[in-house]
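Tutorial handout. Part one gives the primary structure; part two gives the three-dimensional structure as C-alpha cells.
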Amino acid sequence: MKYKGYTGRVAFDEESELFHGEIVDTRDVITFQGKSVSELKKAFKDSVNDYLEFCKERGDKPEKPFSGKFVVRISPELHHSLYVKAVENGESINTVVEHALEVAI
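Part two.
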C-alpha cells in the first residue's frame, strides 16, 4: 500500500480476524488496522495523515521515506574498479553505481 510517498506492510491475524499494518518508511512506529480491505485502506491513510499533522503541530519535519542517500560497504578492489570505470566514462562513481542499480532493478 502506498500513500503520500509512504509504504504500508500488511499481515492478517487469523485469530482476531483483523488486518494489521505498519508503515515501513520511517523509524517512527506508525500502525493501522482494519477488518476489511476498505477499512484497512482508510486506516492506513488516516495514520499517514495523523503522523504528518502530529509532526506539523510539534514543529518537526516528518521523516521522508527516502533521501536518495545510502551507504554501501564494498571491497577495496571493487571500489577501485568503480573509480576506474567512472574516470573512463567521464562520470562520477555515484553515476556509475546509479546506472548499475537501474539495470539490476
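Part three, for discussion. The helical segments are 37-58, 76-89, 93-104. The longest strand covers residues 6-13.
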